[in-house]
Amino acid sequence: MTTPLVEVAGLRIEFPTDGGSVRAVDGLDFTLGAGRALGLVGESGSGKSATAYALLGLHRGTGARVSGTVRVAGTDVLAADDAELRRLRGGAAAMVFQDPLSALDPYYAIGDQIAEVYRVHHRVSKSAARARAVEVLDRVGIADAARRSRSRPHEFSGGMRQRALIAMALACEPRLLIADEPTTALDVTVQAQILDLLHELRAETGMALLLVTHDLGVVAGSVDDILVMRDGTAVERGPVASVLDAPAAAYTRALLTAVPRLDGPVPAAADTDVEAETETDVEADGEPENAAAALSGSAEDTPAVAAGARAPSFVKDQPSPARGAGRVPAADDGALLVAEGLRREFGRGRHAFTAVDDVSLTVRAGETLGVVGESGSGKTTLGRMLVRLLDPTAGRVHYRGRDIAALGEKALRPLRRELQMVFQDPVSSLNPRRSIGESIADPLRAEGRLTDAAVVARVKDLLDRVGLDPDWYHRYPHEFSGGQRQRVGIARALAPEPKLIVCDEPVSALDVTTQAQVVALLGELQRDLGLALVFIAHDLAVVRQVSDRVAVMRGGRIVESGTVDEVYDAPQDPYTKGLLAAVPVLDPAEAAGRRESRRALRDVMVTAH
Amino acid sequence: MPPAPPSGARQIWRRLRGRPAALTGGVVIVLLVLIAAGAPLLAAIEGQDTTSYHPGLVDSASGGVPLGHFGGISGSHWLGVEPGTGRDLFARLVYGARVSLGVAIGATILQVLIGVAFGLAAGLGSRWVDSLLSRVTDVFVVMPALILAIALLAVVPGSFPRPVLLTLVLGFLAWGGFAKIVRAQVLTQKSLDYVAASRLAGSSPWRTARRELLPALVAPVLTYAAITLPTNIVSEAGLSFLGIGVTPPTPSWGQMLSSATTWYQADSSYVLLPAVLLFVTVLAFTVFADGIRTALDPRAASRLRVGTRAGRRGAGTADSAATPADAASGIPGPADPRGGGAA
Amino acid sequence: MTGLPAFLVRRFLQAVLVLLVLAAVLYAVFYIAPGDAARLACGPKCSTAQVAQIRGQMGLDDPVYLQFWHFLQGIVTGHTYSTGTGSLHCPAPCLGQSYRTGELVTHLIAEKLPATASLALGAMVLWLVIGVGTGLLSALRRGGITERLLTGFTLVGVATPVFITGILLLLVFCSWLQWLPYPSYVSLTDDPQQWAWNLLLPWLALALVEAAKYARLTRSSMLETLAEDHIRTFRAYGVGEGAVVRRHALRGALTPVIALSALDLGTMFGGALLTETLFGIPGLGQQLVQSVQLKDLPVVVGIVLVMGLAVVLANAVADVLYALADRRVVLA
Questions:
Q1: Do C17 and B135 touch (CB under 8 A)?
Q2: For the ABC transmembrane type-1 domain, which residue ranges apply (chain B) (predicted)?
């Protein structure tokens, strides 16, 4: 029997902190054979990145305590001296990092940085190393590699930087590639390209891959085996197809269930299976019905929504000159908020750019409108204009028939309570210096109608409503997890009994299980309270899960819109098609199929970059 | 989980407690303040005052070198007497502490008040107000404050009490750093979501400012004040050393150093006393300020985290064009050297 | 690069504004202040009539804004003074003449500048070598006794005002050990060896204080750079620690240091007032302090403007250095 390329046994990693130490990895064993690909999957804090770093001995000198056995390509990493370790790093095993901008030296040309690394491991001349750099840059798909190798990192786009980093890894023909969340910072279309590239390179060079990620969809099409981690230990391992198809561990099942599906609420045979199990699994987390309800989609359970929303009431955004004049809907057709020709510019003079460009849309009472787009598409700006946190440069916002786009702050104040927002960042959306109760009470106190006791009682009700303990009123945000903070944010938005809530990426900063719970909560609240939601997200699957209708944004414009079924099942716009094709799926076989279709689509698809 | 706010007084105290150097600095500062406050009492206990000449205690033949060892130390003159005049040094030093600390603290308070007012107005005001006030602030940041102070001090009539004048001059000339910090902080805060949430809650701008913005200013202003205070002590001493600040018979450590420079060859203990005191004071304040900065710096706590970044950053990073791009710019470093250069 | 010229223009306008404000404030202050410049210029023995005549010649009867305007005009076009017996021409950047001696302020400044420059440049070389050296050493030898010693040294240095360091140096090296003579300034062109020998203590006094500041800055900047992601990348690719520091950390870490030295050099060129006074170096700083005490307005305004110019220029240079080092600025 041959020795595997990577052998990890009894790995323990502890980080010293203010109050003692934190054990990030606690007794982990795994092996990775030459040429194989292993996906290390887990949510934040599971210890997956710490494990990846340990393979190259990167914890050395940081104060972290690492014990156990780590053998990589014949090197005993924990016992090796510095020279041996340097030979391993980059030579036998190379690493690709999450944030490709900060991972490259801003002062040097990319080709020079690759050449430098090459020369560490090979005694060659500078020009030979430079030639090798151009060769690998060309290999990873950088067009005009000789010229582009002279560029510095900030002159590359995000996707190109990640390609450059992969080129650096390739330079010394390592036997193992460690990729730490290589696509997390990238848009979904670019993510697909990078994953496809990794796949091709592996097939071509026969190197092994350790792919560290939080995203089950990313591993599905990219690895042979999978290791699910939680709290520093392995929860489940096995061939990727069998683990994803028939997970043995309850945690894996919960994780899989929580992953939003692109095929959305359409009940497939395989899906119902998983969902049935989920009900008992997620129960541990305290919200059985919610999760199941939301995961099974809104169509059947939500009569109020189902009635009104499925009608294509969306104002189609086709650039027809006649459109601007018409379609101010009468109040009685259910339209709560109608935006017309919204436009927003930032900056002045040469630096001016248009973030939102002539966008029109309608939100009906009680329905969810999804807005989906990649970074820079203008979706956040649009959301903020709808609740008038930003002033539109041009266009109108009719709220219940009244144009609020140009109202002054004072005139707007009485209306503020009816239009609320849930923010993306659970850290910056709560004032760290005020208790969560006071944050939620803010709109009530500003209104000044209720007595102090009544305010506190109402806030406690709201805390209970969003699944938090009412006695946590006096606690501060730093004592809560991301998901809990997001619940506080939702409670705050609910406090003034709004008619419409704009949710700006409400779950994108959360782990996938938490994400599912928060999405479920939003769905449930909407049903019970008859709220209208505008759900802004980059994640197409999440949007499909929650929305009745959806608008796809790109470069400040809406390129396609319609009911979720129309847009997802029969996309018309090539950009939408490309986006949908890029979304990773959980079924390895399907992932392979989609990879092929992406290759075919590549000519048609125009990426956002 | 402890139910305390993350930057509350208790938290700061907890963090400071773990830093013996900062605590020692704090103890020294408290002692110095007590000495300054109790100067009349201390002088009375010794039985001396700051102005009485004691010609019998200096050697008029040698030009006024104190008689006896170590600058004339004796039971009635605990730290000896001033060469030439025979004035009691202990009394002059403890009264000098009053002037040195008083001027520095007064000037710091003035700088904080003016700087915070300018910074707030610039940060909260309209674009027009902001650019006007920022230009004014820039002028004061770039202005060689000490040089201008020298010119100003020279023309004010001698009848005006010098310590008050010094306080005013230092206070009104060197507030630019505070204004910049406050403005930057306000702009950063303004772009945060919780301030947006406060607007959505229907709060008036004043209500939002009071509840959300102002509390966030406490930590950075406090930190910068702790750094500025020793600078002001040195500025006062420097000006007095040049003979332009506090002038005899009023004692201040700088003034004592100034007159000591003519005596250092003959009577080195006269030089060493104010020099050591000044050194200890500045050191104590510097160490204490370092401690405060670490205790208040939210980054200090998170610096230890390694390797486990939770990143879902792809979403909407370039999308958040809604936040002003210049929000975080223009924070002068803690060791901002501008305006302090009369070395 | 499109941003840089615009930036320079803005910086230039700001510099001019600062200098104008400075000059105006000084004029106003001295105008309000009691004291008669004409009597000052004439000397104590002058009669009232003589004083009045001189006042007329000096233009002191004009309103203050007109005097200020003439002063500004003189900077651009030069000025010709009538001295009663003849006339004195003051060429283009004319800063007026001393009330006390009648000497042209520009001449006076030119005369004092070499001493100030000698002090500033020599001290800067010393403080950069000492400061950056200790800073780098303590950043790279973390956790050892070296780091503790160096941290202690920098703390003491930062907390010691230059006049205290200066006095202590004089006391130790001149009074007690008598290794060095009490410094007295010798011009570089007269005797280079004596020049350096006599400036040694002033240089040390200035440099020790500054070096402490630079050591702290270098250390924190280096540690910050070493914690950046791209440093981790090169470590993860087997690049040796020495090469990582030399090639990938040093440049980023030293950018603020270099910008700060530009700033400090400007301030020093503006006259190290305390050091010059303490060591009796006949530079701009010493002259300023003397002129202030004599209420010799034209000299004060002239020197303050030159000092202000040095500081403002240094600020601009520091900003440009930062802008150039900024990773997003692409140099054509």
A1: yes
A2: 97-289
Q: Is A104 helix (H, G, I), strand (E, B) or coil?
A: coil
Distance CA A246, CA A227 (A): 14
CA angle at residue A419 from A414 to A421, to 5 degrees?
A: 130
> Which of C170-174, C269-273, C325-329 has the least mean pLDDT?
C325-329
Give the CATH number for residue B60: 1.10.3720.10
Check CB contact of B300 with chain C, cutoff 8 Å. no
Q: pTM of this prediction? A: 0.78
The SS3 of residue B317 is coil
Q: Amino acid letter at A322?
A: A
List, in sequence order, every residue forming a beta bridge with A75; answer none if it has no partner.
Answer: A72
In a domain, B156, yes or no: yes
Site from B7, B185, B306 to mutate, A interface, most A CB atoms within 10 angstroms: B306
Q: Is residue B63 part of a domain?
A: yes
Question: DSSP characters for C187-203?
Answer: -TTT-HHHHHHHHHHHH
Burial C209-229 (b: 16+ CB within 10 A, else e): bbbbbbbbbbbbbbbebbebe
Which ranges constitute the DSSP H helices of A448-573? 452-465, 482-494, 512-529, 540-546, 564-569
pLDDT, tens digit, 9 for 90 and up, residues C39-63: 666 666 777 777 777 777 777 777 7
- Is residue B339 domain-resident? no
Which residue would you say has higher pLDDT here, B135 or A535?
Answer: A535
Question: Is B153 domain-assigned?
Answer: yes
Whether C21 has its CB under 8 Å from any CB of chain B: the answer is yes
The residue among A281 and A246 whose pLDDT is bigger is A246
pLDDT per position as a tens digit, A47-71: 999 999 999 999 888 888 999 999 9
* Range of the structural domain that residue B160 is part of: 21-303
Q: Is the CB of B311 less than 8 angstroms away from the CB of A377?
A: no
Whether residue C161 and residue B338 make contact (CB cut-off 8 A), yes or no, is: no
Q: Which residue has the tokens 């190259």?
A: A56
Number of domains in chain B: 1
Distance CA C227, CA C224 (A): 5
Position A17, amino acid: T
Q: Which of C16, C167, C258, C297 to mutate to test the interface with B (most CBs of B within 10 A)?
A: C167
Q: Could you read off the pLDDT of A185-222 as tens digits, one per residue?
A: 888 888 888 999 999 999 999 999 999 998 888 888 88
CA neighbor of A370 nearest in space, from A491, A506, A470, A521: A506
| Residue B74 burial by Cβ neighbours in a 10 Å radius (0-12, 13-18, 19+) | middle
What number of H helices and E strands is found in chain B? 14, 2
What's the confidence (pLDDT) of residue A26? 92
Alpha helices (H) along A265-333: 269-283, 288-295, 303-309
Q: What share of chain A is helix, strand, coil (3-state, %, to 5)?
A: 40, 20, 35
Residues 6+ apart with CB under 8 A from B324: B187, B190, B191
Find out whether B93 and B273 touch, Cβ atoms under 8 Å.
Answer: yes
Q: How many Å apart are CA C77 and CA C98, to the nearest integer?
A: 19
Q: Which pair of tokens denotes residue A285?
A: 């987390």
Interhelix angle B268-296/B253-260, rounded to 10 degrees, is: 140
How far apart are alpha carbons B265 and C172 in whole angstroms? 10
Q: In this structure, what DSSP letter does residue A431 have? A: -
Mean pLDDT in residue range B86-112: 89
pLDDT at A609 over 60: no
Tokens of residue B195, six digits: 């301030």
> Phi and psi of C87, rounded to 5°?
-135, 155
DSSP state of A214: S
Residues C238, A87: C-beta atoms closer than 8 Å:
yes
By C-alpha distance, which of B118, B123, B148 is closest to B136?
A: B118
